[in-house]
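Field log, afternoon session.

UNIT: design team B
ACTIVITY: writing a sequence onto a fixed backbone
BACKBONE:
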């Protein structure tokens, strides 16, 4: 069955790769981005199967209009991919209010506005699949990027509630949690707070070293996820699982160690 996709952030990275994966197998894509040059390239190559839409996901009214435009144009809405976002770097003390709000406006609220716009259409269809691109950073955290983690953890929590709310309507929700990939996320998409000299040592000693994956390798994985009869609520992309599993074991050990205190606090 041909699927209709609505993908945010298709100018580069995962959004562009997944749009190409869908189009190459004959699906249709509403390709949104703030800069329409790359979605326009998709339209030049794949013709009427692509609907380029200029969109800033922080503009809630524009989001509603874009989702409706895609639905009216293609006649259905099967897969929504909330991919648009960026990473803000800065220690928690360094991040300004405006920087934190901007991070949440894009990564969290932008995804919420798209989701809310799509849900009435999917409920009417009694089918649909929403992919929230949250990242490995939605279940673990590193120093120096707390604002980004806050936005992704928030989206993970909201999506877990959402999945239970919309299951009776045949709508699936998946939090897609990529590890590090060569998507120009650091070079082109990241923003940074002014650094405080007192954190220089922390920054130097805690900077993680990552092995980055090829974003093109995620194409087949994302198609398998959207085609699964019972898609996962959460799924990693890349090699994050062993490190995250170890982290969760550590969390469980801490909870167990403090269980007597926890139970005693019940009264």
């Amino acid at each position: 069955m041909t699927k209709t996709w609505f993908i945010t952030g298709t100018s580069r990275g995962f959004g562009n790769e997944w749009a190409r994966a869908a189009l190459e197998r004959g699906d249709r894509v509403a390709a949104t981005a703030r800069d329409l040059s790359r979605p326009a390239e998709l339209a030049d190559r794949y013709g009427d199967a692509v609907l380029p839409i200029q969109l800033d996901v922080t503009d809630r009214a524009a989001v509603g209009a874009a989702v409706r435009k895609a639905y009216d144009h293609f006649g259905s809405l099967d897969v929504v991919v909330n991919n648009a976002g960026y990473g803000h770097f800065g220690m928690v003390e360094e991040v300004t209010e405006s920087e934190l709000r901007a991070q949440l406006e894009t990564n969290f609220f932008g995804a919420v506005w798209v989701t809310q716009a799509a849900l009435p259409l999917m409920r009417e269809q009694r089918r649909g699949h929403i992919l929230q691109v949250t990242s490995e950073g939605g279940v673990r955290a590193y120093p120096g990027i707390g604002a980004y983690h806050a936005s992704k953890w928030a989206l993970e929590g909201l999506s877990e509630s959402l999945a239970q709310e919309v299951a009776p309507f045949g709508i699936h929700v998946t939090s897609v949690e990529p590890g590090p990939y060569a998507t120009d996320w650091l070079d082109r998409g990241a923003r940074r707070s002014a650094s405080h000299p007192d954190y220089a040592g922390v920054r130097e000693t805690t900077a993680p070293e990552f092995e980055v994956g090829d974003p093109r390798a995620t194409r087949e994985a994302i198609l398998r996820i959207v085609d699964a009869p019972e898609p996962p609520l959460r799924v990693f992309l890349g090699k994050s699982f062993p490190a995250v599993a170890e982290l969760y074991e550590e969390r469980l050990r801490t909870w167990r160690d403090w269980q007597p205190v926890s139970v005693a606090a019940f009264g």
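LOG NOTE: Residues 97-125 form the longest helix (29 residues).
NEXT ACTIVITY: expression trials, pending approval
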